Amino acid sequence: MFKIRKVRSPFFAALLVVMLFPALVSAQGAVQGALRDLDAIWGAVWDEYADPFFNGVDWHRLPDSIRPRILAAETEEEAYMALADMVAALGDPSTFLVEPNPYFAFFETEYAGIGVLIGLASSLNAYTDEPSFSDEEIAVLEVFPGTPAEGSGVLVGDVIVRVDDWDASGASVDDVSSRIRGPVGTPVELTLRAPDGELRTVTIVRERVDLRPTTTFERFDDDLAYLRLDTLLSEQVAAAKEHIASNADVKHLILDLRGITSGEPVATSELASWFLGNVSLGAFESRYDRYALQAPGAGSERLPVYKNKLTVLIHGGTSGLGEVLALLLSEYNRATLAGQPSAGGFSLTRMVLLPSGWGLNLSIARYVSPGGRGLHAEGLVPDVLIEDVTLEELRSEGDPVLNKVLAWARSQAE
Questions:
Q1: Cα 363 vs. chain centroid, distance in angstroms?
Q2: Looking at the whole model, is its pTM more than 0.70?
Q3: What percent of the chain is predicted at pLDDT more than 90?
Q4: Which of 253, 270, 384, 402 is the most exposed place for a label (fewest CB within 10 A)?
């Protein structure tokens, strides 16, 4: 088994694509399938890839170095590792191979469980002075508010040692997750190890956990407000607009775009216009066409609805249209970016079905802002950079980054 991971932020470490290779596939069949896929990949990239110069890669000659590796492969794993290296040569995080029947640890809209996000414990080493977590352990990376796990005192950084009588040592995310989930109303007993090594056992009754996207708004006494969206879909944007319209007098708004990866271009454009008015919003450009971002009613004299101070909160999980919105508000000097660097490298993609059943997620268009900027691999760097978040803060405060940004915002009003 070999794994290809693309992890943007520690809290997204559970989102893995695990490639499972059948043990009995003949080397000859694997080679022939990979050779057919090689030609299909080369042709798709040559015809449609967003950058006509292939990011400086000599794409015309690249197959010459890949084909011998495939011919020498003894397993399907070796053959497709060569193809993965070929695609990776583009240096584009949005362009990658997808196995025919991959396992995706994915977010559902609703499930019966306890309300946690779990993943490799080693991702938590980003919040410790010295590496203290192992790849062989599964830990709690996020506890969703208002869930049984929160009520039972489960915290970020708790390593899952046992689920009922089952030893979780060396288990996969999928194995642990499947054992934690179960029928509504039934109990599950977790043995957890805190970062200091202390073991404790908690019994949690499973409930139906609703993970559908929401919009959260809170207005504080000091004329500071907080608005968070989970996605930039029309329903969430409509709810956000209601909050903005009824609180347009607030002196400082914190717009939280952390974790936003998806949405609708029209809804994103409309939300941008509520802060910017009727301005150019840039476009997605392919080698053959250009799709301009436009809010409904573009061309009319639309004035911004919210005109006061705006801070946009981002981090490594801010990508896609969330990153586009943050870039627009920053480029027009309409907002201060705060938090941690965004994902970067966003482009529009399409899935190319290869002859063997594998897929190629291919970048076909890239966003270009009104000022000619793109979303490069390094992402957006915040004006107010929040660093040195510790695991202790994650366990005691819940959202230390937001707390630090709120403290900074209040200091600006003094």
A1: 17
A2: yes
A3: 60
A4: 384
